[in-house]
Each structure stands twice: as structure tokens, then as C-alpha cells.
Design brief:
binds zinc ion; 20% helix; four-stranded mixed sheet; 224 residues; globular; single chain
Length: 224
């Protein structure tokens, strides 16, 4: 399915804390199949196990975070219905995901307070405009690795939540991985039965810190 033009039903809440006001967008319905956890190995990177529908919603959340410098994008994933793991023995706790621009300067220490005040939220439909081709984002000398500090996604884990922050370009540079997972992943899975299908998302200088994996046990998706 094409990402561009896809619709994502969300809820918007405006939360006031002291003199600051935050706009928080979350899915109108919880994602049924998206388990996020820090892997129990030496690399301590994050694994996000998804089905087809969750992959699309997460890609749209990534795009929304990219385009909306004033918005906190919140994906409550701790209560996901299918708690699948890459390795059965991995019992690290499930985490939520928050995506936002670093320019917002939102301190994760305030998150619990903001989350408690979301209320019901106003329904809002987000429509995807897709991601820009990576080539259009590179520097003129085509050195994708020579990014400025502003152009990497950074992570922090607090309050059982993974916070990913970045600039427009930092989020945009990993858009192609999300697009591939959503648009080309399903056909790839069909043509490569039994093989591992994933998108590796660069965070800080780890090119695959966020490992987004299509669940082997739910290849057609739990909503199908
Ligand atoms: Zn992989
Ligand atoms: Zn599964």
C-alpha cells in the first residue's frame, strides 16, 4: 500500500503546564501489534515488532513528527494486544514511544505530567504526503554521513518511554526505510517466505539502533 495519501485517525490534546502549552497527537485507536523494548544484549538497541497495519501507522507517526515541529507524537505501545518478541527469552518491559523535534525543547522529565492530562482529545485525520527521496536530502557532495549534529535522531529512555528527538532532516533521512517497510515490505515477504523483514532506523550514530521488524507470526497482520 502506498504511504502517500494514506489516512491516520488521531486524537489531538492541548496540555498546559505552567506557562507552556504542548500539542500532543496520539492514535485514535491503540496499535494492536507493536511491541517496543530495549533488547537484552550487549548493544542495547531498541526492537519494535510490528504487523502490517502497525508498520503503516508508525511510518505516518514518523512523518507527522518530521513535519510538525510544534507537536509531540505519542504512541502508547505498552498495552499492545500482541506482545510478540524477536526472541522468546527476551522479557525486557514494553515501552511507549514519543517522537518530537529537538527545537521543541520538551524535557522527558515532564512527560508523566503531560501524559496524565491528555484528556479525551479532539479527533483529527492525518493524511500522509509521503517521504522525500533521500537523494534530495543529501549535501551537494553526497556525503550522507557528514550530517550536522542537528541532523541525527537522538534517543532517551525515561518513564518507560523511548523518546526520539530530531530535526526535520533527521527524521526525513530515515523516511526511506519506513517507506520501504510499508510499501515494498509486503511484496518482499511474499517473495521471500521465511526470511526476516525489517527496517533499520539510524539513531545517533548507530545506523540500526531502532530495529523495526515485521513479526514472523503475524505476517498478514492481526487486523486482516
Ligand atoms: Zn533486521
Ligand atoms: Zn506477532
Amino acid at each position: 500500500m502506498k504511504l502517500e495519501g494514506a489516512r491516520w485517525r488521531t486524537l489531538i490534546s492541548t496540555v498546559r503546564l505552567g506557562r507552556d502549552e504542548y500539542q500532543v497527537v496520539r492514535p485514535a485507536k491503540p496499535l494492536r501489534h507493536a511491541s517496543l523494548y530495549i533488547t537484552d544484549d550487549a548493544f542495547r538497541n531498541a526492537e519494535l515488532l510490528v504487523d502490517k497495519v502497525a508498520a503503516r501507522e508508525l511510518a505516518m507517526a514518523w512523518e507527522l513528527a518530521m513535519r510538525s515541529p510544534r507537536t509531540v507524537v505519542y504512541l502508547p505501545l505498552r498495552q499492545t494486544e500482541y506482545e510478540c518478541r524477536s526472541f522468546e527469552e527476551d522479557d525486557e518491559p514494553l515501552l511507549d514511544l514519543v517522537l518530537m523535534h529537538h527545537s521543541l525543547g520538551f524535557p522527558p522529565s515532564l512527560w508523566k505530567e503531560v501524559r496524565a492530562r491528555l484528556g479525551r482529545g479532539r479527533p483529527h485525520v492525518v493524511r500522509s504526503r509521503g517521504f522525500l527521496p533521500v537523494e534530495s536530502l543529501l549535501t551537494p557532495d553526497y556525503q550522507p554521513l557528514r550530517r550536522t549534529c542537528r541532523d541525527v535522531v537522538r534517543h532517551r529512555v525515561a518513564a518507560r518511554t523511548v523518546f526520539l528527538t530530531g530535526s526535520w532532516k533527521a527524521f526525513a533521512l530515515t523516511g526511506e526505510q519506513w517507506r520501504w517497510l510499508v510499501e515494498d515490505g509486503p511484496r518482499w515477504i511474499h517473495e521471500n517466505p521465511g526470511r526476516h523483514c525489517c527496517a533499520e532506523i539510524a539513531v545517533e550514530w548507530d545506523w540500526d539502533w531502532l530495529h523495526v521488524v515485521r513479526c514472523d507470526d503475524h505476517r498478514v497482520g492481526v487486523n486482516a
